[in-house]
Structure formats: structure tokens, C-alpha cells
Amino acid sequence: MRSETARLGVLEPDEMGGTPRLVFANQLRGIAALAVVVSHLVGVFWWSRDFIALATSTPVQQGTRPGFTAIVASPWFMAGPFGVALFFLISGLVIPFSLDRLSTRGFLLARILRIYPTYIAALLIEILVLHLNGWFWNKQFPYSTGTILANLLLVHTVSGSPSIDLVNWSLSIELKFYMIAALVAPALRRRKLWLPVAIGSVLTVIALLLRLPSPGSGVVASSFDTVRQTLRMESVYLVFMLIGMLFTLRLRSVANGGLTVAGLLGSIMVLLVLFVFCWRIGPQAEQYPIVLFNYGYALMLFSASFLFRKRIRRAWLLDRLADISYPIYVVHMIVGASIMKLLLLRFGWSPLSCLITALISLLALAIILHRLVERPSISIGRTLAKACFR
User: In terms of pTM, does the model score above 0.90?
Assistant: First the structure.
């Protein structure tokens, strides 16, 4: 463990018996979750009132925006994209470690049980909240059975169904990243230094090919176009996630075939060029360059944390927030906004009191999901993966 600690940086034991975690990466999860929650409940809740009302089956709140929304008002820093970018980089970093200790099929099983149980539990809670909102505010439940099933399975992006929780688009991208990692598992386990750039190049070619118009017309063509546009959008973020994988290659000592500093910087530059190019030709091109900057900020923080990883020690607050980062991410938007609407419109509370109460409620709910669903499902996933797919 000493040699491992010296090479990788400060490690902490995994509470569920898995590979020890890098402290800096684990704490960045907490920062990422906080950034997304603050962005949505402080910013989006007030700036996109009609959209939030429709998404939560609640009335539109009136009045001026409260002063505290200024903390997320800068057009040059968007906490939501910044937090999501951190999550993507962390995934790119840690997924190769998961593949090291499991077979490819075991890895996929473990990741399925890592993602789905907590997500499904959170989504069912949100669906219940939407039904309660509809009853209380005399609004119609907005989603069909097909939409619910597509969201539960995380295939809503390719089926053309709307997102129920407004954040699960990123989970669909995570699943595709797992599939890519499984496909290249042999090369990834051998830490082939060219792999991230090669995958990024292939994804860029695919993004270019997907710009071609859909063949024919009718239902089939329409369905194909939905899939095509989705994959064009998702390929952008998949390229970005590969940057995290480069840092995994750097963690391996140069004497053992790891990536040199020059190799790391050069590969990052190549993937950044591909990332920007895919964004410019993708369906979200109108967001360039403002939203793109936040991915740069996330990369700078991630890189600095990686550079000083040996000096970063455990911090109770960040560690606890990291523990519940996934459940609070998947449950915060609908539940948090609904609590704020109820307190604001029905009971006349101040905006700040509504926000604080919603945050406390979300923390409590996330802790419950973490202890009752997330931790057991991760443990079961690891056990089954090792037992069934050795």
C-alpha cells in the first residue's frame, strides 16, 4: 500500500470493500454535486419559471428574482455544466480501475447495479412527487407509461422521450462510456497509451458521419433522426470523458509504461481539439463558446487537484457530500423544486427559507437513498460480478 500511495497519491479505503479511492477524485464528486444542485435550485428555478412549472406540475411563481441568485448569475461561469464536467472527468479516471479488478462482463454487471437501483428508486420518488403535485395544484400528470419506461431504462434519449428528472441525460452518456470501456477492455487493462486519442478520433469520425441527412422519410426515418441527433450530442461528452482516462495512464509510473508529462499534455490538447470540434458541428453548437468554457474550468480544477493529489487529505464535509453525490444528483431537481414551490406559493415563505429547507430535505433523502439503496446495491453488484464472472 505504501508504494501504491506514493505513486497514486493519498488513498482511502473503500467502505464497501472495493479498490481504494483517490481522495482528490472522491472529494471532487462532492464539489460537482454541490455545483449542480446550486445551479438548478438557485438559478434555473428562478430563471426558467415556465419550464420548471411544466416539469414539476406546479404553478409558475411570480415576483422578482431574489438577490441570492446573483451567485450563479455570471454568463461566464455556469455551475451546472461545470459540475457535470467534473463528474465526466472523474468517470474517465476511475473506470479503468474498475476494469482492472473485474472481468468485462463482471464490470458491466457491477456498473449496472451501480447506476440503476439508486436511479430507479429516485425516479419513482420523483414520479410520486409529480402525482402529488398534480393532485395538490390541480395539474395533469404530464408523462405517458412509455415515457416512464424509457426513463426508467435510460433509453429516453434515443427513443425521443422527454426527461422526467431533467438530469438523466448524463447517465445515458455514462452508460455508453461503460460500453466503450468494455469494448476496448483488453487494451485498457494493458494501459495502451494511444487508446484515449484513438477512441476520441473514432468518435469524431462518427459525429461527422452522423451529420449526413436521414435516408428516406416516414416513421423509420424520424426514429433514425432521433437516434442520430442523440448520438451526435453524446459523442461530444464521450470525447471529453476520455481526458479523465489520460490521467489514469499518467498514474502509472513511467518506468512501468505510464504516460509522461509531455504525453499527457499533448494527448489532452488533441482530445480538447476533438471535443471543441465535435461541439461546433453538433446539435448544441449555439452554446459555443459560453457553455464550453465551464468544461475548461472543470478541467483546470481537476488537473490542479491531480497535480497536488499527494497533499490532499480527507475533509469530513466533502467526504460526506461525496458519499451522497449520486443520490442527491438524481433526486434534487424535481423534489427540490417541488418543495420550494409548495413553501413559496402555499405558505408564503421567503425564497431563502424555501431554498434552505429544500436543501436540508434533499440531504436527508439522499442519505436515506445512499444507505438503503446505493450502498447495498453496489455491494451486491461487486459480489455478483466477482462470483459469476471470474
Answer: yes
